[in-house]
Amino acid sequence: MRHGLSLAPFGELADPRVVADLAADAERAGFDGVFLWDHMYRAEPFRPVADPWIALAAAAAATERIRLGTLVTPVARRRPQKLARETVTLDHLSGGRLVLGVGLGVNTGRELTRFGEEDDDRIRGDRLDEGLELLCRLWSGAEATHHGRHFTADAVRFLPRPLQEPRIPVWVAAPTGRPRPMRRAARYDGICTDATADEAPALLDRIRRERGDLDGFDVIASGRPGTGADGWERAGATWWITALPDPVDPETVAGVIADGPALS
C-alpha cells in the first residue's frame, strides 16, 4: 500500500514555494504522493488560496519520484479543454507522475454560487460525466467532435498526448451508498472512498461487478494524522492518504512528514 499526503493550499500553504518544499520533504521521508485540494475561494474563515496547478508545478520541479495530483477537482466548474492543457502539461513536467482526482465539489462558503456556478448535485454530476468523457478524448490526441448539453468541441485535436498510457489516471470521489458515483468510479482508474475498512469488501464487490475485475484499479482511503491505516491494506486499499486538517500551518505538516508514512 502506498502512502500520500493531502494538503489544502490555503493560508501559509498558499505560497507554492512552501508546497514545493513540503513535497520535497515528503519524498525524502518515503511518502509516495502529495495531493492538493482544488478550490477557488475560502471564506470560513477567509484566507489566501493558491491555484493547485501552479503549486503542483512547483512541487513537480522539486521532486523526482512521488505522485502528484488534486483531491479533488470539481470538473463541473471547469472547461475540459483548459483542464486538458493543464493536466497534460503537468504530466510532461513531472515525467508522467500526475493523478487527476475528480468529484462534484462543494459549495462551502458559497464558493460555487458566489460566482454563478451550478449548485444542483444532479446537474453537476451530468457536467462531471460529460466533462470527463470529453477530457479523455482530448487526451487521446485523436480528432474530437463533441456537441453535448454542457460542453462543445468541433473537430479539434490536442497534442501532445500525456506521457502516461493509456491516459492520466483518474480517481473518482464516490461517497458510500451513492450508486451513481460508484458507477462513475468503476469506469475510471480509482475510487476515493469515505467507507470504513469493514465496509470495503462490499464496496469492492460492487466495483468488481461494474468493471469485471479490479486489475489496475486503485482504492484510496484516508484519515487524519495519527489515525493510521489499520485494516485497510487487508481490505484492498492501494493508497492511504493522510489528510491534513484545514487550516494547518507548515510546521504541523513538517511534523507529520518527519514522523514518516508508517506513523501518519
Q: Could you explain how this protein is built, in words?
A:
This protein is an alpha/beta fold. It has one domain (2-263): Luciferase-like domain (TIM Barrel), CATH 3.20.20. The chain has eight helices and ten strands. Strands 1-2-3-4-7-8-9-10 form an eight-stranded parallel barrel, surrounded by four helices. Helix 3 links the parallel strand 3 and strand 4. It is globular. The mean pLDDT is 95.
Overview in brief:
The chain has 264 residues and is α/β, with parallel strands linked by helices. It has 8 helices and 10 strands.
Please give the structural blueprint.
Layout: E1 2-7, H1 16-29, E2 33-36, H2 52-62, E3 67-74, H3 80-93, E4 98-103, H4 121-139, E5 144-147, E6 152-156, E7 170-174, H5 179-187, E8 190-193, H6 200-211, E9 218-223, H7 232-235, E10 239-243, H8 250-259
Parallel strand pairs: 1-2, 1-10, 2-3, 3-4, 4-7, 7-8, 8-9, 9-10
Antiparallel strand pairs: 5-6
Distance between the termini: 13 Å
Class based on secondary structure composition and strand pairing: alpha/beta
Counted by DSSP, the helix tally is 8
CATH topology: TIM Barrel
Largest sheet: 8 strands, parallel, barrel
List keywords for this structure.
264 residues; alpha/beta; TIM Barrel; eight-stranded parallel barrel; two-stranded antiparallel sheet; 8 helices; 35% helix; globular
